[in-house]
Design goal:
8-stranded mixed β-sheet, 20 strands, 4-stranded antiparallel β-sheet, 11% strand, disordered N terminus, 1032 residues, alpha+beta
Length: 1032
C-alpha cells in the first residue's frame, strides 16, 4: 500500500521539481542541499538515506536527523527557520511548530503557527524597531565606555612609570635604613650586656648587705610594731572618751569647756571619719581577743616584709610615719580632754563629762605603765644601735637596688652615684632607637613589597586598565544594606540600621578563562551555620563608574540548596547617566511583554523531572521548573530520558497536567499523528492535576486554608503568642498546639490568609529557625467536591480520634514546679555545707537566694485567682484537655497529694537545717568586720585596716552589655571569666529573644577594666555595646 502511494506521487511530480525557496521552514543557508536528484529524490542531511522529494514537509518524519521536516512538527529533532522580515531571523525547534503558542521570542512573524489556527500576527516591524533602537543605544554606550577605557589605559601608563620611580627610591631608602637598624641593634646589645653585668654585681652586693643587716632591721621593725599596737590602743581609748562626751553630754548646761572639746572633736571626725570607725569596731574587744588580733597582724607583716632588705626598710619607714601621726593624734586628743578636765563646771551634774574626766585619769595611769614597758623593751632591744645600723645600710642599698624599688623609699640618698641611672637611661634610649628603626624598616619594607607586587606580579588587566582604579571604592544603597566594593581589594556589606560591617571577601582574581570584566571576591565572613560570604562583580561598558544591583541578587544559600558556591552578587556597570533611564525603561518594557505572553499562552516545561520519575514525588512541588510526568508519558511527548533515570524510575510514577492548561502532544519519529489526531488525543488524554508528594504513592491532601508551624521556641509555645503573631494575616478559625513537637496548626477562613502567612518575610517569633509550611489536612476550598473517603472521615466522631498530646493536670504541674524549687534549694545548701571558709558576701548571696526560692515555693502553693473567660478558639482546646483529664484515674489525685506532703516535709527539714547554719555562722563571727592592720597615717588607709586589706577605690566594678545576641549570651560567663573573678551576672530585661542586656560584676576594678579593653577584640561581641554601670 505504501509503495503504490509513493509511485502515484512520483508520477504526479514527474515534471519540474519543487524549488528549495518554496520549502516552508527551510534555512536559506541549506537551500542548496534541498534540490531533488535526477530521479527526484531527497538525500537526508546526515546522508543516512534518500527519500522521494515529495515526502519533504509531508508531516511524517522519515530522516533520522529530522531534516526532511523543516516546516512541520513531525520530527522532534528538526529545526524551523523563521525569516522575520524587518528583524533578525530565528531558528525554532520543530517540536514548537503548530503547537498553538506564538513564539515571538524566536519567530516574530508568526510563521511557526501556519497550521494550528492560532492568531499570530507579524510583529517583526515593531520588535525590529525596538531592537535597532536598543542596538543604537548600546553602541552609544559602547563608544563612551571605550573612550573611558582608553583614558584609563593612557593614565595607567604614566602611573606605572611614576610607581616604578617610587619603587626605586624606596628601595634605596630601605638599604640605608637597614644599615641604621643594624647599628642600633648592635648598640642595644652592647648596652644591655653592660646592664646585665652591672645587675649581676649589684645582686652580689645586695645579697651581702642582706646577710649582714636584714636581721637587725627585722628586730627594729618588730619593736616598732609593738609600739604601734600600744599607741593605737591609746588613741582609740581617747577617741571613745571624746565620743561619749559628744554623744551624751547635756548641751543645756552650756559649759564652754565641754562645748570647745566637742567642737574640736567634731571637726576632726568630720575630716577623718574612719578613725572613729576603727575605734568603735574594737570597743568591746577584751585583752585576749586584742592579743590574738595583733598576733595575726604581726604574722602577716612578717610574711610580706621580712623576706627582703628593701621591703623591710620600707616597712620601718612606714611604721615611723604612722608612729609620728598617732603620737600627734594622742597629744591632740589628750589636750582637748585635759582642757575639759580643768575648765568644766563641776557644779553641773553632767554624768558624761564626769565619766570622761575619770576615764582620762585612768588613761594617764595606763599610759605611764605602758610607756615604762616600752622603754624597757627598747633598752633591751637597743633600738638606738638598730637605728644606727639602718642609717648605715640605706645609702649602701640605694646604690645597688633597682630604681623602681629605690623610688619606694621616701628617704633615698640623693647623693648616690649616678652611673647606674646613666647606664639605664642609655639602655632605654638605645632600645627606643632600635624599636623606631625596626618599625620604620618594617613599614618601608612592606611598601616596597606592595609596590613590587603591584608592578611585577599582580594582574591589572590588559594594558594595566585597572591600575588607575585600584583601591577605588564604590557603594550601592539597596535599602537594608549598603554594598561597598573596592576594586582589586575587598568588598563589604554595611547594615544601614546600625552600621555593622560584614566582610564579603577579598579580591582573589578575575573570572574564568581570564575574563577581566569579572572580579571575584572570596573568603568573606562565614554565614551563620553556612558557607563563607563572597561576591562576584561584573563590568558592563559605559562612561560613568557606579554600582548597579543584579536582578537576581540573593543571600548566601546552604550547600544542600545549591551545589555551586553561594554568593552575594552585585554588578559594577559603567553607565552613562542620561542613558541609564532609557535602559531601565527598555528592561521594564521587555519584562511586561514577557508577562503578557505567559498570561496568554502559559508556561512551558520542556524537560521531565528526573526526581519525579525516580521517586514518584518531587521536593520542589509546584515550584519545580520541569514537567512532573512518568517515564512512558515523557517518551510519548518526545522528551529525552537518560537510561540511568529509567532504571530507577518508580513503577507508580504520577502523571502531570502542565499549568495554565497547556497541552503536550506525543511527537516521536516512531509514533506520529496528524493534526486532527493530535487534537483528538489532547481532548481524550487524562492527567493528574497535582504531582505526588507522599512516599506511599498516594496524593498528599494539602490544606488550602491551614498552615503548620514547627520549631516554635519555648517562650512562644502558647496560644496567646501564636495567635498574636498569625492573626495579622487573617481571621483564625481554629488553633491547635502540639507541645511535644513544639508545633502548631492554624486554620484560616480563606486561602488568601494562608498565602500571606506562608510568604511572610518576617522572622516568626524573631527566630529564623521557625518554619511555616502548608498544613496536611482535609480542608478544601468552598464548593469543592468531597470524596467518599473524606465523607467517611467526617462521619467519625471527634471523641474517637486520639489526641496527639495530653496536657498535664494543674496539680501535677504544681508538684513538678515545687520539686524543681526544692532541688535548687538542695544545691545551694550543699554549697554552704561543703565550703566552710566561704567569704561572707558570697554566703549572704546564697542565703538570699534560698529565701527567694522559699518565697516562690510558698507562692506556688497558694491557690491562683480565677482565670478570665477563654476565647472561642481556645475554648475548644481547653474543653478537649478537660475531657482527656477527666478520664484520669482517681489514683492520680492521691499521688499528687502524696507528692505535696513529701515536699512540705522536705521543706521543714531544709528550714531546720538553714537555722542551724545561721547559728553556726553567728558563732564563727561571719558578720564581723575584717582584721585590723597597719595604716599609713591620717591621709592614707584607715589605721584599723590591714595593710593592703582595704581599698578606698569606690569606682564601679560592673559592666553593662547591651545588644547581646543569643550566641554571645551563652558564651558571656566563659568569656568574661578569663579576665578575673566574677561575683554575679544579671539579666536586666525580661524579653526572651535577642538582643539582651546583661550586667557583669567583677571582684576587682582592675579586672573589669581589663575586660572592657579586651572585649572589643572578641568576635562574638563585635556589635555589643559595653559601658560602666551607672551608680547612685
Amino acid at each position: 500500500m505504501r509503495f503504490g502511494w509513493a509511485s502515484h506521487l512520483v508520477l504526479l511530480y514527474a515534471g519540474p521539481s519543487l524549488g528549495s525557496s518554496d520549502i516552508r521552514g527551510l534555512d536559506p543557508a541549506l537551500a542548496a542541499r534541498y534540490v531533488a536528484t535526477a530521479d527526484n529524490h531527497f538525500t537526508c542531511l546526515d546522508g543516512s538515506q534518500q527519500i522521494p522529494f515529495a515526502r519533504v514537509n509531508d508531516d511524517y518524519c522519515d530522516c533520522a536527523d529530522g531534516s526532511d521536516e523543516p516546516g512541520t512538527a513531525a520530527c522532534s529533532n528538526g529545526t524551523f527557520y523563521c525569516a522575520n522580515l524587518g528583524h533578525i531571523p530565528g531558528r525554532l525547534s520543530s517540536r514548537r511548530v503548530n503547537d498553538g503558542v506564538c513564539d515571538y521570542d524566536v519567530c516574530c512573524d508568526g510563521s511557526d503557527e501556519w497550521d494550528s489556527g492560532a492568531a499570530c500576527p507579524d510583529k517583526c516591524a515593531e520588535l525590529g524597531a525596538q531592537h535597532r533602537r536598543a542596538e543604537s543605544e548600546r553602541r552609544l554606550v559602547q563608544g563612551a565606555g571605550e573612550e573611558r577605557l582608553r583614558e584609563l589605559i593612557a593614565g595607567a601608563q604614566g602611573l606605572r612609570q611614576t610607581k616604578r620611580e617610587e619603587l626605586e627610591l624606596k628601595r634605596t631608602q630601605l638599604a640605608a635604613l637597614e644599615h641604621e637598624f643594624a647599628a642600633a641593634e648592635a648598640l642595644k646589645a652592647d648596652l644591655e650586656e653592660q646592664q646585665r653585668a652591672r645587675e649581676a654585681a649589684d645582686t652580689t652586693t645586695l645579697q651581702a648587705l642582706t646577710d649582714e643587716y636584714l636581721a637587725d632591721i627585722v628586730r627594729l621593725r618588730k619593736q616598732l610594731a609593738r609600739e604601734l599596737h600600744v599607741l593605737r590602743a591609746q588613741r582609740d581609748a581617747l577617741i571613745l572618751l571624746l565620743r561619749s562626751v559628744r554623744a551624751d553630754h547635756n548641751p543645756e548646761f552650756n559649759d564652754a569647756a565641754v562645748a570647745a572639746a566637742v567642737s574640736e572633736y567634731t571637726k576632726f571626725i568630720d575630716a577623718y571619719p574612719y578613725i572613729e570607725a576603727a575605734a568603735l569596731a574594737y570597743a568591746d574587744e577584751d585583752s585576749a581577743a586584742r592579743a590574738q588580733r595583733e598576733l595575726e597582724m604581726d604574722r602577716d607583716n612578717a610574711e610580706s616584709d621580712d623576706g627582703s632588705l628593701q621591703a623591710c626598710i620600707n616597712a620601718v619607714e612606714i611604721a615611723d610615719n604612722e608612729r609620728r601621726t598617732v603620737h600627734d593624734d594622742i597629744a591632740m586628743f589628750f589636750g582637748w580632754l585635759d582642757a575639759l578636765r580643768l575648765g568644766y563646771n563641776q557644779n553641773y551634774h553632767d554624768l558624761a563629762v564626769k565619766a570622761a574626766v575619770v576615764g582620762l585619769a585612768d588613761f594617764e595611769k595606763a599610759r605611764d605603765r605602758e610607756q615604762a614597758d616600752l622603754d624597757a623593751q627598747q633598752a633591751e632591744a637597743d633600738v638606738k644601735a638598730l637605728r644606727e645600723r639602718l642609717d648605715i645600710v640605706k645609702p649602701l642599698l640605694s646604690a645597688v637596688v633597682p630604681a623602681e624599688h629605690a623610688d619606694e623609699s621616701e628617704h633615698a640618698d640623693e647623693s648616690a652615684p649616678a652611673e647606674s641611672d646613666d647606664l639605664d637611661k642609655r639602655v632605654a634610649d638605645a632600645r627606643s632607637a632600635f624599636w623606631d628603626a625596626q618599625t620604620a624598616k618594617s613599614q618601608l619594607s612592606n611598601e616596597v613589597s606592595n609596590l613590587r607586587e603591584l608592578l611585577e606580579e599582580k594582574d591589572l588587566g590588559p594594558h594595566d586598565m585597572y591600575l588607575s582604579l585600584k583601591n577605588e571604592c564604590y557603594s550601592l544603597d539597596s535599602g537594608e544594606y549598603t554594598y561597598e566594593v573596592c576594586l582589586l581589594d575587598r568588598a563589604a556589606q554595611i547594615e544601614n540600621r546600625n552600621g555593622a560591617r560584614q566582610n564579603l571577601g577579598s579580591f582573589t582574581g578575575f573570572g574564568e578563562n581570564g575574563v577581566h570584566t569579572v572580579l571575584q571576591y572570596r573568603h568573606g565572613a562565614k554565614c551563620w551555620n553556612g558557607p563563607e560570604r563572597s561576591m562576584t562583580v561584573e563590568f558592563e561598558c559605559a562612561e560613568e563608574i557606579k554600582l548597579l544591583p543584579t536582578h537576581g541578587r540573593t543571600r548566601s544559600r546552604s550547600p544542600e540548596r545549591e551545589r555551586r558556591p553561594p554568593r552575594e552578587s552585585v554588578d559594577s556597570a559603567l553607565l552613562d547617566g542620561p542613558l541609564e533611564s532609557r535602559h531601565q525603561q527598555q528592561q521594564q518594557m521587555t519584562y511586561h511583554m514577557q508577562q503578557q505572553q505567559q498570561q496568554q499562552f502559559g508556561s512551558r516545561k520542556r524537560r521531565p523531572c528526573f526526581e519525579f520519575i525516580r521517586k514518584g514525588q518531587c521536593h520542589r512541588g509546584d515550584t519545580c521548573t520541569f514537567a512532573h510526568v512518568t517515564a512512558d508519558v515523557a517518551q510519548r511527548m518526545g522528551m529525552q530520558v537518560p537510561p540511568s533515570v529509567l532504571a530507577g524510575a518508580s513503577a507508580n510514577g504520577a502523571q502531570f497536567m502542565p499549568p495554565n492548561g497547556a497541552q503536550f502532544a506525543p511527537q516521536n519519529p516512531m509514533f506520529a499523528m496528524r493534526p486532527q489526531q493530535q487534537q483528538a488525543w489532547q481532548q481524550s488524554a487524562q492527567f493528574s492535576a497535582r504531582p505526588m508528594h507522599d512516599p506511599t504513592q498516594q496524593p498528599a491532601n494539602y490544606s488550602t486554608t491551614a498552615v503548620y508551624v514547627k520549631n516554635i521556641p519555648d517562650a512562644s509555645l502558647d496560644e496567646t503568642s501564636v495567635r498574636d503573631f498569625f492573626a495579622k494575616f487573617g481571621a483564625i478559625q481554629d488553633l491547635r498546639i502540639d507541645y511535644n513537637r513544639k508545633a502548631a496548626t492554624i486554620e484560616y477562613g480563606d486561602a488568601n490568609a494562608q498565602a500571606q502567612a506562608l510568604s511572610t518575610p518576617e522572622a516568626v517569633f524573631n527566630n529564623r529557625f521557625v518554619r511555616v509550611l502548608r498544613a496536611v489536612g482535609t480542608s478544601q476550598p468552598a464548593g469543592a467536591p468531597t470524596t467518599a473517603a473524606d465523607s467517611t472521615a467526617a462521619a467519625v466522631p471527634a471523641a474517637a480520634a486520639a489526641p496527639m498530646w495530653r496536657p498535664k493536670s494543674a496539680a501535677i504541674k504544681k508538684a513538678e514546679l515545687i520539686e524543681k524549687y526544692v532541688e535548687q534549694q538542695k544545691d545551694l545548701m550543699k554549697k554552704l555545707t561543703s565550703t566552710p571558709d566561704m567569704p561572707a558576701p558570697t554566703r549572704k548571696i546564697i542565703m538570699d537566694s534560698i529565701k527567694q526560692i522559699q518565697q516562690k515555693i510558698d507562692e506556688s502553693r497558694q491557690p491562683k485567682a480565677a482565670a478570665p473567660p477563654a476565647t472561642a478558639a481556645s475554648t475548644s482546646v481547653a474543653s478537649a484537655a478537660a475531657d482527656s483529664t477527666s478520664t484520669e484515674p482517681e489514683a492520680a489525685a492521691s499521688d499528687n497529694a502524696a507528692q505535696l506532703d513529701a515536699v512540705a516535709s522536705e521543706k521543714a527539714a531544709l528550714q531546720s537545717k538553714l537555722k542551724t547554719l545561721q547559728e553556726q555562722a553567728a558563732r564563727l563571727g561571719m558578720n564581723e568586720r575584717g582584721m585590723r592592720g597597719r595604716g599609713r597615717g591620717r591621709g592614707g588607709a584607715p589605721a584599723w585596716a590591714g595593710r593592703g586589706a582595704m581599698s578606698l577605690d569606690k569606682r564601679p566594678r560592673s559592666l553593662v552589655f547591651r545588644n547581646v545576641s543569643q550566641e554571645a549570651a551563652e558564651q558571656l560567663p566563659s568569656e568574661m571569666s578569663q579576665f578575673g573573678e566574677i561575683e554575679h551576672i544579671d539579666k536586666l530585661d525580661d524579653q526572651n529573644n535577642a538582643p539582651f542586656t546583661y550586667t557583669v560584676k567583677f571582684k576587682a576594678r582592675w579586672e573589669a577594666e581589663k575586660a572592657l579593653k579586651a572585649v572589643e577584640a572578641l568576635d562574638l561581641f563585635t556589635n555589643v555595646q559595653v559601658d560602666w554601670e551607672a551608680t547612685s
